[in-house]
Every structure is written in C-alpha cells, then in structure tokens.
Design brief:
Blueprint lengths: L10 H44 L6 H5 L36 H7 L19 H6 L25 H6 L1 H30 L4 H23 L5 H25 L5 H22 L2 H18 L5 H13 L10 H21 L5 H22 L6 H11 L1 H4 L7 H25 L2 H4 L3 H22 L2 H18 L4 H21 L3 H4 L6 H27 L5 H59 L6 H26 L3 H33 L1
Length: about 675
Amino acid sequence: MTHHGSADPAPGDAADRAVVARLAGEFAALSERLAAASADLTVLDRVLEHVGATAPAGDPPVRRAASPMPPQPSAAPPPWPAPPMPWSPPPAGRAPQGPAGAHTAWQGSVPPGAVGPQPMAWRPAPSPSAIAGGPRPTAGPYGPPHRAPMPPHPPKTSFRDRLRDGRFVGKALAVVGVGVTLVGVVLLLVLAAQAGILRPEVRVSGGLVLAAALLAAGIRLHGRAGGRIGAIALSATGMATAYLDVVAATRIYDWLPGWGGLLASAAVAAAGLTLARRWDSEHLGLLVLVPLIVLAPVLTAGINLPAVTFLLVLAAASLPAQLGRDWIFLHIARIVAATAPLAIVLVADASGDTWTVAAACATAALLAVVSAVVLMPETRRRVTLALATVAGTLPLLASALVVDRYVAAGMDVVLAILLLGVVLIAQRLGETTVTGMTEPVRQIFIVLAATSVLLATVAACDGQVLTVVVAALATVLAVAGRHQLFARLVAVGFAMIGGLAFLAQTPLDHLIVAVDTSAGDAATTAIAALLIGASAVVIAWTWSRAEDTDVEIRRLLWVAAGLVCGYALTAFTVTVGVATGGTGGGFLAGHMAATICGITAAAGLLWASRRRTAERPLLVGAGLTVAAAAVAKLFLFDLATLDGMFRVVAFIVVGLILLGVGSGYARTLMTDDRVTGA
C-alpha cells in the first residue's frame, strides 16, 4: 500500500547530512587558512626583495630572511603576516581538524636554520567590547629582530688611492690651471705694458672679456653632471681676473680713484658670494673673499683707515652669505678681514684720528659678537666659532694703546656687558638647538668678559685703586658664582692678580721699615688690604662649601687664606698707624695692633670650634696655626722692634688672651667628656 505525503527522514540520511555539513565547515576553514598562507607568502616575497636590495652582498639568505621590515602605514599591506582572524569554536563534535602532517610538511620545506612562518594558534572570538575599543592583536616578525652591525671605520686613503680617484686629480689640475691662467693675466696687464704690446684699453678690455668668459663657462659647466669642481675653478679664476683688472685700472693706469676701485671690487665680491651661496660652495666663497682682503691695501696705497673701513664693510656685507651654512673657514676669513688691518694700525699707530680708530675697534668687536650669535646654531664647530669671536675682539681689548684710556675702558665694559647678556639669555632659553651656546662656548665668553673688565680696570685705574677694584671683582664673582667651578676658577685668577698688584704696591720692606705716604695712598692701601683679605676668605669659603672639593684642597685653601689675611692685616694696621701717628710711634702701634689682632683671631677660631663639632678639627688647626704665628711674630719681630709701652702692652695682652683661651678651651673639653660619658 502506497502512502502519499511527506515521510520522516531516515536516521542514516540525517547522519550523512551532518557529515556533509562538518566537511563543508572544515573545507571553509581550510580555505581561509590557505588564503592566509598565500598572503603570508606574498608578503614574505616582498620582504626578501626589500632586504635583498638593501643588505650587503655577502649576507647569507637566512639572515636576510630574518631581517625585520620597517613599519608601514596602516593603509598599506602589513609587512609581516597578519594575525589569523579570530573565529569562534564550532559546536561540539564539529571542531575542524587540519590534515595530519601539514605543519610538518611546511616546516620541512624551509631551509635549515631559517625561521619560517609560525603556526596559527586557535584564539577565542573577542568580546564586542574588545572589538569596539580594545587593542587589536598584532603579529611579530619572523624570529628575533636583527640589529645591523656598526659599519667599520673607513680606512685611511693612501696617496696612491687618491691618485686613482678622479676627483683628486681633477682638483689638482684645476688648481694648477687657475694659477697658470692668473699668471697669464698678469703678463697681459703688466709685462705687456712694459713691452709696449697692445694699448692699455685693449689689455684691460681683454681681461674683462676673459673674466666674463670664464664666469659664463663656469655657470654653464655647473649644470652638468660631474662639473662642480671645474665650475668652481673657472668661476674663481674669472673673479680673480676681474680683481686684477680693477687693480690695473686703479693703480697702474690711474683710471679709477681708490674708492672707485674699492666699489668695483666690492661688486665683483658680491657677485662671487652670491654664486657661492647659490652653489653651496664654501671654497668658492673663500676664493672670492681672500683675494680681496689681500688686494684692498693695494687699492688704498697701504694699510690705512680707508682700507680698514672697506674691509669692515666687506666683513659685514658678507655675513648674509653664511646664513644657514656651516662655513666656519669663511667666517674666520671675515674675522681676519675685520681685525688684521686694524691690529696693524693699532700697533703702528699710523693714524692720528683716535676717534675713528675707536669706532673701528668697536665695530669689529660688535660684528664678531653678532656674527657668533647668528651663526652659532648652524655650525658644528661651536668652540672654533667662539675662539674666532675672541680674535675679533682683540683690537678693542688693545685699543688703550692708541685711544684715550677712559674711552678704551668704557668700550671694554660695554663689551663685557654684551657678552654676559648673551650668556644669560642663552642660559635662560636653555635650548642649545636654538642658541647653540653650549657650556664650553659660554665659558669662553665668560672668560672674555672677565678679561675685558680686567683690562678696563687696568686702563682706568692706577696704583692701589687697581688692587681695590680687582679684589672687589674677585669677591663678588666668588659669591655670585659659588655654585659653578668655572666661575670659582675665574675668581681665583682675579684674586691672584689683585694680590700681586697689592704686593707690588705694598712690598714686605714697607712693613719692616716705616715709609711715609700721603693720606690718599694710605687710604687706598688700607681699603685694598681689607678687600684682599676678604677675597681670600670668601674664596676659601666658597671652595669649602662645594661638594666636589677634596679635603686636602680645602685645608690648603684655608692655609693660603690665613697667610694672605696675616699679610693684609699687618699692612692695614701699619698703614693706618703711620698715617695717623707718623713713622715713629704710629709704625710701632701698628705692629702692636697687628700682633694683638692676630692672637684675637686665633682665639675666635678656637672659640668657634666649641660649637661646630663637625668642623672642629679644621677650626682647631687653624686657630693653633694663627696663634703660633702671632707668638712667633711677638718674639722674633716685636721683641726686637717695639720699645717702651708698645712692647709691654703687646706681651701682656697676648699673654692674657692665651690664658683665657686655654682655660676656656680646657673647660669645654671637660664638659664635652662628661656629656659623652653620661
């Protein structure tokens, strides 16, 4: 009997359909994995091509395959195999199973030692929150990242290798060609005139035509491949030919006055420097500027103020050619142009116009400082640039040889203020890339400013006034720069100069034998003695407070400060005594006061050691040393020199002070022992 309608599927059909569905899922997963493997192979091929194009020829293929690829933008295909797309595990019983041995076969296809693609691990499907905002998984490179070795230092090229280099041979031939051509131009302009060959107009016109032709040939050659060396040589030869033409028209044929020749030469130099900046060639700039520095005195009939003025203008006008360029040698040439003729004028004292010389010195120094500030961020040779700045200020520092000393002192002070302002602004900005003022550069400028102040003091002050100012500067600098080693060293230098000046004005024999002085000299000597002693104490204190000062150096500094203070104290009391009481009783009273003040200072040091336990050994040693010096002076000098009541008072006062200090110090030690024992 036949039944119409739908019948329930047999159990076998349901099992077959389940198998088919499972196989379909496995084939779909396998298809996805094969597609990912194909993409990985494509990326790997790109990696090998990229590394093969950039790696050295001797690298093994395994090393190139392991080299990491640089990061790519997100829009481009990833340089490394993308991570497998996360997928949710299928229902139980339908987990895909890869073909057995597939991974082993893949690894077997990789050469030994190479790092192949890593097997794709199962990852659970991410949560919706992770998909929305969480970080996406990223794939790492094949194997550990490889760091390229540092390139070896290039070996020094020998002379034979240079001969094989075409550029060296080309430069040598170009230099020889420039020299030979210029000799020919000189023969055309000078020897032809002496022999009567050609008219002067023809000679000068021929030189101009030759200069223009050389310059045009250089410009044309520069646009061709490998023509840079020849273009620079031809252009420099053309500029030099034009200079020689100007010299001939000015000095040989007298067609142009001196200022006309200077203007014509300046026009040639402007064209040459413009071309040098356009071609970015410092060599061409030097070949344009240096010959003009040599020819300027020829055009002005010697090194005089017109030549100095022209070269100053040239040095200032050539500064824009250096902007944005690291042309340190051109800067040195500019400094030489501004300072060398001016220094010769100062030494020879060939000009009677002191105000013009002073203005020229100030202009040269200002130009040197401004050039340093402008060019410092662009150069890598900052110390060399700072030293060139020092050279540019030398005429101003030596201007007291010709200029009025007060004018010279004023210019020195202005220079010091300018330099210190530059240093302070650089420290305030703090960015070395903005100002270029590194620590060595700032130190050079500080030394230059200190030297300028010292020379201003020497120029404006005489006698003990110089000592007073220098000692005051040393004291102020020691206090202001106590946190910087360099400033403390400069303060020591100033103090030594002041001490030597004081010793020259107040030698030891003035303290042994009474010398009558005027009231003004006595006052300045007394003030200088006080400042010398104060500077010694302040310098020793600042060095002792510094953490980088060794203990032995601290002791030596305090010993030196004690010696200086002893000499300064004796000079002060003797000078005041002679000024108030004359060379008789005043001199004796001064020495008596010096001895009493010395033993009082020793008592003060020993008394201070009672309260400062950390520095007690140093204070006790200093106090005992000063006391020994005072007692030695009492018996060796005062006993033989003082007479009458001066001798009696000195011995009684010193003895009483020693008794009081001894008993008080002993009682202090006993009290400390009791406290320690308790």
